Amino acid sequence: MSFDAAYEALTDHDDDARWAYGTGFADPLAGVPTTVPANIDRGDLAAYCMMLGDDALIMSHRLQQWVTRAPELEDELAIANIGLDLLGQARLLLTRAGEVEGAGRDEDALAYLREPREFRHVPLAERADADFAHLTARLLVFATWRLALFDRLAASRDPMLAAIAAKGVKELTYHREYAAQWVVRLGDGTDLSHERMRAAMAAVGPLIGELLDPHEIERRLAVAGVAVDPATVRGEVEEVLAEVARAATLRPPVIPPPPTGGPAADDVSGAEPAGGRGRDGVHGEALTEILGELQGLARSLPGSVW
Amino acid sequence: MSARLAAAADVVAAVADPELPMLTLAELGIVREVRESEDGVLVAITPTYSGCPAMEAIRDDIETALREAGFRRVTVRTVLSPAWTTDWITASGRAKLAAAGIAPPGAAPRRPAGPVPLTLGARRDPVCCPHCGHGDTEQIAAFSATACRELRRCPACREPFEHVKEI
C-alpha cells in the first residue's frame, strides 16, 4: 500500500466485508478445508465449537474492558494482547461452528446476533473483576484450564479443532505464565497485596467446579475422540494452581468436588447443579451487560460496513 | 518448478511483513506453499498468532504483489497446521531483526512429555542486548506492541529493546 493510495486502501473492501473487523476482513479460515470427518455428529460438533469459542469471546471482552484501567501501561498491553489472542481463537472456533452447523451463520452472526440463552460459555468467563487481583486469579484459572484442554484437544479426530488447539497451546502458555507471575508477585508481596490476592483466589474457587464438570455434549464427543472431557484435566488444573499458590504464599482455591451420583446423562432426577449451567445457556446479569456493549452497534446498524 | 511458478514464488517471498517491515514473508517463515492450481497461483500462508490482525493485510499484499507482477489469477489460503513457530524465522531474518534493534528469538521450547511446564518467569536461555551485546538482560513486560514480542532492558547500556518471544 503506497501512501498516495492510503485513503483508497482504507475504504477499499470486498463484498464480504463486515464492519465489525474493519474493512475487508475476511473469513479467518479462508481456504481451510471445511469437511467434517465421518461418524461425527454435526450438531454436537457445532455446539462444542461454540462452547470453546464463547469462552474465548466473552473472556476476551472482559479483558478488553481493562484497557485504560490497568495499573501500568505494560500490563495494559499484556491484557490487550491476551484478549486479542482469545478473540482470534474465538473467530476460528465460531467460524468452524457456523460451517459445521450449516445454517448460514458466520462468525459475525454468531457473535453479534445470538440471544443470551444461545451463548454457551462457562460462568468464569463473564465474571466482572472487582480489582486487578481478581483479574489475575480469574485469568490464571481460565488459562490453566484452557491450556490443559487444548493440549489434549490437539489430538482431536476433527483436524480443524486439533489445529486450532495446537496453535492455542502456544498462546495460552504465555497467558498462564503472565497471570501466574502476577499472582505470585501480589501474593508474596505486601500485607495489603497478599490480602487482596488471597480474597481473589478464594472468590474464584467456586467457579472452577463447572469448568471440570462435563456437559453431555462434551462427554459424547469425548467418547468419539473429538472433544476433551473436562473432568480429565482436574488433576492438572489442581496441580498447577497449587504450585502457583505455594510460590505466592497463598492457599490454592478450594475447588468444588465432582458432582456425585454418576454422570448427568444417567441422572433421571433432572436436578441441575446449583446456579445453572453456562454450557446450557444459563447465565447471569453480567452477560446482559457484556452483550449490550458487544452487540449494541451491530444490532442498531444491521449489516453495516465501514 | 516452472519458470513462471519460480517467479511467483520469488514475488511472494519478497513481500514485506506489515508489522516487522524489515522482514520478508519468507524470512518470517509464514509462506507454506506456492503452486499452480485451477484457481491460478495458489499461495498458502500460516498465521503467527490466532488473533494476528496482520493476516488480512498480508493476504492483500501478496495478491497485490502477484497481480503487479502479471499474475492475474491468485488465491491465498490459510494453513493452520502445523502451527507456526519462531524456529521458522530464517538466519537472514534474525540478522535483520537484530540490526533493527529487536532481539531475535532463541530456539522454541521443546516440550517434555506430560503437561506444559509452568516456569514462573524463569528463562532457559539468556537474551542478548541487540545494542551492546550484553548477555544478561531483564524483562520489563511479557507483552509488547504485539503479542509476539516482549519488552526487555539492558543493565549495561541501559537501553530498552524488544525481543521476539519463542513459540
Descriptive overview:
The complex is a heterodimer of chains A (about 300) and B (about 170). By secondary structure, chain A is mainly α. Chain A has a single domain, classed as Ferritin (Up-down Bundle), CATH 1.20.1260. Chain A is about 55% helix and about 0% strand. Chain A has helices spanning about 5-10, 40-65, 75-100, 105-110, 125, 130-155, 160-185, 190-205, 210, 215-225, 235-245, 285-300. The two termini of chain A are about 20 Å apart. Chain B has two domains: about 5-80, 2-Layer Sandwich (GMP Synthetase, Chain A, domain 3); about 100-110 and about 125-165, no CATH class. Chain B has helices spanning about 5-15, 25-30, 55-70, 90-100; strands at about 30-35, 40-45, 75-80, 100-105, 140, 150-155, 160-165. A four-stranded mixed beta sheet of chain B has the order 4-7-6-5. Chain B starts with a helix and ends with a strand. Chain B has about 170 residues and is of the alpha/beta class. In chain B, helix 3 links the parallel strand 2 (about 40-45) and strand 3 (about 75-80). The radius of gyration of chain B is 18 Å and the shape is elongated. The chains are: A mainly alpha (about 300), B alpha/beta (about 170). Chains A and B meet through helix 3, helix 6, helix 7 and helix 11 of A and helix 3 and strand 3 of B.
